[in-house]
Amino acid sequence: MPEILSFSRNICTVVEQIGDDSMTSSCRLQDTLMDAYVEISVKIPDLEISGIKGRLERSVIGEKIDVEDAFKKIMGTRVGPGIRKIIRGFIGNSATEKQLAYMVEECCSGLILSFTKDHLKQIPKDPKKAKHAFENMVKANPRLYKSCAALSPGSPLVDNIEFD
Amino acid sequence: MPEILSFSRNICTVVEQIGDDSMTSSCRLQDTLMDAYVEISVKIPDLEISGIKGRLERSVIGEKIDVEDAFKKIMGTRVGPGIRKIIRGFIGNSATEKQLAYMVEECCSGLILSFTKDHLKQIPKDPKKAKHAFENMVKANPRLYKSCAALSPGSPLVDNIEFD
Amino acid sequence: MEGGDFEMITFTRNKVVSVWRKDDDTLGVHGILEDDIYSLEIDVSLSLSQLEILSIAGKWNRAENSECRRAIPFLQEAVGFKMGEGFTQRVQKLIGRKSCRHLADMLLECCYRARDTARVIRWEAEKERRPDLSLDEVVSEQGDPSSGPIKDFQISSRKPLKRGAGDLPLSKKAMISGEMIIDLHVHTSPASPCSSASVGETIEEAKRIGLDGICLTDHNYVWTAAEVERLREKHDFLILRGNEITTDQGDVLVFGVEKEIEGIIELKELRQEVLKAGGFMILAHPFRGFLTFGVGQLGLTVEKAMERPLFEFVDAVEIMNSKVTEKENRFAAEVAEGLNLQVTGGSDAHAVSGVGIYATRFSDRIDNEIDLIRALKKGNYIPVAFREGMKKRS
Amino acid sequence: MEGGDFEMITFTRNKVVSVWRKDDDTLGVHGILEDDIYSLEIDVSLSLSQLEILSIAGKWNRAENSECRRAIPFLQEAVGFKMGEGFTQRVQKLIGRKSCRHLADMLLECCYRARDTARVIRWEAEKERRPDLSLDEVVSEQGDPSSGPIKDFQISSRKPLKRGAGDLPLSKKAMISGEMIIDLHVHTSPASPCSSASVGETIEEAKRIGLDGICLTDHNYVWTAAEVERLREKHDFLILRGNEITTDQGDVLVFGVEKEIEGIIELKELRQEVLKAGGFMILAHPFRGFLTFGVGQLGLTVEKAMERPLFEFVDAVEIMNSKVTEKENRFAAEVAEGLNLQVTGGSDAHAVSGVGIYATRFSDRIDNEIDLIRALKKGNYIPVAFREGMKKRS
Hints:
The complex is a heterotetramer, with 2 copies of chain A and 2 copies of chain C. Chain A is α+β, with helices and mostly antiparallel strands. Chain A contains 4 helices and 4 strands; from the N terminus they run ββββαααα. In chain A, strands 1-2-3-4 form a 4-stranded antiparallel sheet. The N and C termini of chain A lie far apart (56 Å). Strand 1 (5-18) of chain B pairs antiparallel with strand 1 (9-23) of chain C, so a sheet runs across the interface.
């Protein structure tokens, strides 16, 4: 009867503001096969990666890796659209490096989402006003149009928008 | 419309077997207010706490705490029934210490559950046989009877059991 | 870093808790437990000002066995609990044993994170007035996990506090959900000579404060069905009949027995009468006066008390009674819990102002005495501190 | 350790993924995403041997906006995907854009953890034969997240592989769920002179392999309703009518148009006819031969291809056609995805053995041509590699 797990993973990403001019984003990954920590620092407002730290606490893979060394190629990269491609391009020959690269991606997503969160906090609670706010958001950034189901034709959030 | 979080917590507890004669159980807690790590080691088979480590990585509470010092009173304690009471009795004057004590409890629960898991793995998939296995488990350990809804009168798992 | 053997990891447990503000006075909490054996989720809402549990919903994704699902309904028994002294112990004992200790642990985890959130919100609200106030202070104070609700709470907006189900008056709301709050233990004058409250005044007060019904339990006195029917019509209010009967083992609330009982009866004999009539028996204030000198001095432990034979002759135990001490109520609760007996609440009011101090919240709809007996036997009810809750809502 | 300011934490994201073995060849995966903005859960089942997605269920607990719920149904489009080259990209592009990138990310997370689990299970199964085999080796090999399913898989038990819905034959199963798998692109002799397969043989083969229906799409040839009705009765099988029409811009599958079209027609003109008749148009094998020299050499990029005006005149694009290369199918898929066009699959069979190589799986029940047009317009369908799936199941 019991359905005992064969595999378990927990990833926790935390973004912090450090003073006025920098932020850190850290990712801890713990699963059946490994336990690792990665932290990136960025400068505000340009969001360039100004520091990167990491350690591998446990791994079934014997591979010896200097995490910080593996990451140095992305120092100075700007966290923004396209960063995922850059990370994957620079890091990740081995299985371990790929996981670490994924954790850097998580750090970057967290950073970007922390700004999204600030933006979403401004959206009014009233559904009508909220709809309007989303409409304006898409109008201001047409890349968002058709970027997901909620912002595609058929959704009331974009039914007043015509890009064609 | 968005329901932005005000608070978030992630706790991950991992139990490892280290060779034949010891185990470690570690707990990492990350939340809006703090980030801490606690690890206990126990000897097999007596499960006495033979080592304890910990660090506070981040906390809104300014309090300075020597984690290992706070914990030394429970060195040598046996992980088993009643451990929660002992931990709470020995650790936890300040708010921070209370959280650390909770993390030690999590480590102990994880250890105990790792044995429960081994036991549950032996339970047959067939519902009839599984029922029988649970029945025998309760008969062998009457403390389990009425210890939860699944093992209380009315549940088919215990309907053949009479302790009164 | 060296690679190790995979079999080293023997167990993993993940807990994730999220808290957000549903409205001015409501926090929503979503708690997740995922480990090698269990996968469960729990949604709790608490009032921000009182840290009272307003609702709980639980769900298994994976469980130890097929009967774990039985644990879910018992979570409801913690609805109405307020964080404060003894809260942790109460949840661990009541929910942990009747329901499941993993659900109880996650319920506590959710509630404590709601409390942390309440403190952060409070700090945010207060720091404008007191820029020197550090979050450190706010978070560290009342650091005891079993400490009470937050005092001097500054809620940023001044809207009336809500109970989570919109702005309906409580009694209306109860009707919609089928939920009824009934004071099961009320005395009136002159049927109970010890009471100062006329039955009419008592009923009007019960209506005013929003109870859904009261049960007249005058001492060794049986109201006729016709009398009660007349009162119901006159006041347009649910009035039920019971009896507080003095036995050799103490007072018992009896429901569903028409036969008049005179003098003091043996508990065993009363039990026979009630069983014959298909009625229901609640042991009233079982430890009244027992604990005057403290549990320690008398040497009375919960375990010893559980052995008292009188508990075999009743169906439920009154664990909220306004005429005994907090301690005595709590002790009664522990004994009932240990014996797995149903528990109820009733004011034991002997004056108008006492009606509804405690009451019993039924999940079932109750329109008459037959419904009441059925609901009592079914067991979907919990004792509530009604007047206290009412004050908060008004 | 110094206490800091609370406002430092600006965002938190938690992901938890659990994998367990549902039966010999099925892994269950439960993925949770909890962050300051989103709360979602996803349940995925995958076959252990093929790492094919067998089912997906998604659920929002909290979302960015009220329309996020629209993303859930699109998850179904990944059912049938197998982990292998291009898998990540396909999920990111298809699910990420049509559904939601957070759901797509969690879907990938679930699938990759299933793959890790499969490797661990494989290692456990193999280490008895090969005690020297380290988990390290098994986990590290094919370290590329986009690498294919595990080869040489040793499953401990030898039960026949299942698709997750019990042991029903596929066609039966499809009927129960309302789901229909139809080959939308079939040629028969003599209506299509290029075909070697008689219509009777073709139908019997389609029945044998478990398709739910076929669509006769002979070149510029219209079957009469009476002819098709006779075939349906004779073979007790769903036979639908379409047309493969050659236009100045390439071949187009047309449904719901009775009018006979002769010679080569301008795509624009055909569009008018189809719109008038309320029919449906699928661009057949749009890049057949285009990619012979490789995308790079021709300089044809997906972006450039998307600009081709012909896509404005069709309702859907055939992205699984057995007469073109894998690459050409994939390129068609990317273009269709970029343009947000519906996609279908059809064998383009010209021989009995070709029927059902590819087909289209509809979520809707289809009993006749009106149902077909309605279902095509509604959009709840995906192309499937039917024969391949069938082989696995038999």
